[in-house]
């Protein structure tokens, strides 16, 4: 699955996902091992069942760094798993497939943490609101 990461990053939709300042702060505060636990839980509960509840809408676009990773990696719903990773719908994910999904999500998160400077927070009353920058 990790071999597909470069291809996923060429997708106009998938490559737009970035970690926010809050995401980076959260990851640094709780640590990557805790994030891995969250990823495994999300995959097991929301993606692994043969017929996930609300499939296609079970992964929010924001709220947790793993959610962003799931969308960026094509692991947000069973149809995306089938399209990007050739894992058929209608059957539960094996333990090995779940582990591979988690590894892909963690690889994306690590790549984003190490390769992109975190975006700056927008300040209220800053130049973007028509004020002079000095």
How would the blueprint of this fold be written?
Layout: H1 5-8, H2 21-30, H3 32-47, H4 65-72, H5 78-85, H6 95-115
Helix pairs in contact: 3-6, 4-6
The main sheet comes to:
none
How do the helices and strands follow one another from N- to C-terminus?
Answer: HHHHHH
Query: What percent of residues adopt helix (DSSP H or I)?
Result: 40-55%
List how many beta strands DSSP finds: 0
Q: Roughly how many Å apart are the termini? A: 49 Å
Strand content: under 5%
Radius of gyration: 17 Å
The count of domains is 1
Low-pLDDT parts are none
Structural class of the secondary structure composition? mainly alpha
- Envelope shape: globular
What tags apply to this protein structure?
6 helices; mainly alpha; 134 residues
Q: What can you tell me about this protein's structure?
A:
This protein is mostly helical. It has helices at 5-8, 21-30, 32-47, 65-72, 78-85, 95-115. It has one domain. The chain is built from six helices and no strands.
What is the compact description of this entry?
By secondary structure, the protein is mainly α.
């Amino acid at each position: 699955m990790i071999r597909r990461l470069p291809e996923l990053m060429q997708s106009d939709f998938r490559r737009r996902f970035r970690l926010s300042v809050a995401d980076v702060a959260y990851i640094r505060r709780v640590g990557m091992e805790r994030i891995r636990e969250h990823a495994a839980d999300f995959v097991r509960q929301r993606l692994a069942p043969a017929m996930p509840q609300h499939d296609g809408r079970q992964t929010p676009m924001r709220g947790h760094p793993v959610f962003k990773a799931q969308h960026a990696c094509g692991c947000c719903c069973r149809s995306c798993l089938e399209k990007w990773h050739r894992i058929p719908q209608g059957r539960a994910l094996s333990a090995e497939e779940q582990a591979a999904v988690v590894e892909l999500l963690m690889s994306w998160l690590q790549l984003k943490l190490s390769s992109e400077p975190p975006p700056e927070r927008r300040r209220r009353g800053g130049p973007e609101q028509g004020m002079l920058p000095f």
